[in-house]
Amino acid sequence: MSVSVEHLNADTTFLLTFSPKTGGSHSREHKQSDNFTILVDPWLAGSSSIWMPRFQISHHTSAPVVTSLADLALPDMILISQDKPDHCHEETLRTLPADTPVHIVAVPAAAKKIKSWRHFTHATITVINPYRSRNYDTVLRIPLKTEDALFGASGEITISYVPQSYDMTNLHNAIGITYRPSRSSIPLDQNGRPMSLPLSPPMTPVVSRTNSNPPSPQPMIASNIFQAECRPVSILYTPHGIGIPCITPYMESFLAPMGALPLTILMHSINVEQNPWFLGGLVASGLPGGSELVKRFGADYWLSAHDEAKDNRGWATAMIKSRHYTMEEAQVLCDDEVERYDEAHGREGERRGPRLVNLEVGEELLA
């Protein structure tokens, strides 16, 4: 199985394509039946403004791949991570015809905003509530059917929403996504975990009546009928960053038991954006915040998100302070942080840091 991530604008709009095949191909115009696609935070047309243009307005400085959702194959899901206009972008979402049977999954505030537009007449709008480790129902589970009705095991997409506690701006949250394809070989238990199959019994030795020394019994050998790679794909989408205490319950209570750590992909800003405290303080935690996540939980890839050099105007943007990193600088600093963390915890040399990736518009990462 694999996941492809295509950057549709230079900011934080991504098309995720989950495939049961390793290196599975995809097209943004034509969806394959066995793939599952998620469009994340589409902002493809127009500007983004909070309150009024004099307060804050942003424009893309790089043209998106497309300017209308009608130019894309209808995804299985549109995921909206927050209600801010650069994530929940009305002009872009309205490029879909009103009668489109789209499935929109959104955090509570964003779902309320989308419903208030009264644009979609045939859409399914699903609210994802904050994750609670003791509440099974706070994880949105989407079953993926198997074609093998007799021996097959259905797959699953899960979506979890983890908000930042005491965040006056409501910018800092995380969306956790896992993917396990349907299979015809590996049975799963009710929690979506691969079942441990019993060992095959040893063959009963045949003893010759003429042989006074019976052969020693053969050792037990585990059946390999169901052996396959079954570690799920796991993605953490947190473009503004999230605090370690807030995300730890999800990582330790949900991802770790299903074998989904280290993360397949962390989607997080590289650059740091800071406002004065009276305008909300930290906007994007960037390299320092992302490094804390990969030190503790690991990741194969760290994909830059929300790092576009946008054209920002308005008095609310006049006091933002930024710390920008080149990808080479960020990679070295991240590797050093992971190495120091592992040395301090007696795990020197056991792992390596994630590969940092910055996708240009239209480029994709296959993991």
Automatic annotation (TrEMBL):
Superkingdom field: Eukaryota
Pfam families per UniProt: Lactamase_B_3 (PF13483)
InterPro entries: RibonucZ/Hydroxyglut_hydro (IPR036866)
Species of the source: Elsinoe australis
Descriptive protein name: Metallo-beta-lactamase domain-containing protein
